[in-house]
Structures are given as structure tokens and as C-alpha cells.
Amino acid sequence: MGIAELHSVDITTATGGGATGYIGPVRGIVQFITYATGTLASTADVTITLEDSGQNLWTESNVTVADQRHPRTAADLEDGSASTLTELPIYAADERIKIVLAQGGNTKAATFKAVVS
User: Fold this and answer.
1) pLDDT band at 23; cut points 50, 70, 90
2) What is the 3-state secondary structure (H, E, C) of the chain?
3) Residues 45, 47, 38, 66: is their CA dihedral positive or negative?
4) CA 116 to CA 48: how far, in whole Å?
5) Each residue's pLDDT tens digit, 77-98
6) Residue 95 backbone phi and psi in degrees, to 5
7) I want to staple 69 with a disulfide (CB 3.0 to 4.6 A). Which of 40, 43, 52, 58 is the partner?
8) C-alpha to C-alpha distance for 96 and 26, rounded to whole angstroms
9) Rounded distance between C-alpha atoms, residue 3 and residue 6, angstroms
10) Exposed, middle or buried: residue 93 (CB in 10 Å: 0-12, 13-18, 19+)?
């Protein structure tokens, strides 16, 4: 495992309540993502993915308080069948973390942080 790096982005929603922000590019295992602080409306929807591969890191509706997620992906075997492992860490290979906000309120702020190692 490499040295952990903390990345952060401040995002402000537009008048329609939507916004997109990026962290990175990053390389390594995405250990966790935090909605650290902000003034988003209680109706805010968050979709966080790796920009190029589209791997889902966090999707949630009505995020109301600071929170944290440890993203993982389902494990499978070479033939596509289910593995006895239930989940594996998600590796970013020089990809940006894409954060899309919807219904966040008029010009509301949010800070997202990611630790990658």
C-alpha cells in the first residue's frame, strides 16, 4: 500500500441546485470519501464516480449531514461468476473523482474530501 494522500474540492451549486466538481487525477485505492462540510439543501443528491471507468464510489439521495463512505466493488471470477469474496477496494488509475450534485439548493456550498493510497 502506498502513502495515503488527502484530496479536497469545494463545490458551489448553481441557481438550479446542480454542480459538478472533480478531485484529482488520483492513483491508488480510494480508501474513503467524506462530505466534510457544507450548506447543501436537505434534498441534495450526490453521485460520485471515477470519471473514466465510471466505477461508482457513492450514490445517495437527500444527503443532509456530513458523512463518509468507504467505496467497494463486488468481486467476481474470471468467468463472470460470483466470487466467495464479497467486495474489493476500488483502484483509481490516474482518474479524476467526479462529484455530481443535484437538487442541492440555490448557490449552496459543499466540501468533499477523498483519501487515496
Assistant:
1) very high
2) CCCCEEEEEEEECCCCCCEEEEEEEEEEEEEEEEEEEECCCCCCEEEEEECCCCCEEEEECCCCCCEEECCEECCECCCCCECCCCCEECEEEEEEEEEEEECCCCCCEEEEEEEEC
3) positive
4) 15
5) 888 787 877 788 999 999 999 9
6) -115, 155
7) 58
8) 6
9) 10
10) exposed
Residue with cell 462530505: 35
Cell matching residue 51: 470519471
The residue behind cell 464510489 is 57
> Does 31 have pLDDT greater than 80?
yes
Grid cell for residue 23: 478531485
C-alpha cell at 66: 456530513
More confident residue, 26 or 37: 26
Closest to 88 in 3D by CA, of 103, 71, 105: 71
